[in-house]
Amino acid sequence: MTTTSARLLEHPPREEIRLEQVLHALADPMRLHVVRHLAALASGEEATCSEIDLAVTKSTSTHHFRVLREAGVIWQIYRGTAKMNRLRREDLDELFPSLLATVLDADAAQRCRLSDGP
Locate the HTH arsR-type domain: which residues (predicted)? Predict the structure, then answer.
């Protein structure tokens, strides 16, 4: 008997990803920070949860990653003891063309606007 099945994480299949869940996941600033970090990686690259600096407790960080995974925004897989994260860009672009790019562009514009001040 192996224990690897306990380390598998559930992800929605592409056909079950819903727009309202994706938008809900992207609406939170911490989760948007995670997506922004993963989007900046080269295609197919992964990052551990600890590589993505979130100014929250570990349990809150775990919650944010779970929301993103359950919405179909990210893939999570265990590699040894590390939980690796990768953006589901291909799935999101297929289901909702330009959504991810538009959200990331709008986020960048807002961060620029807010950092400039009046």
Answer: 11-107
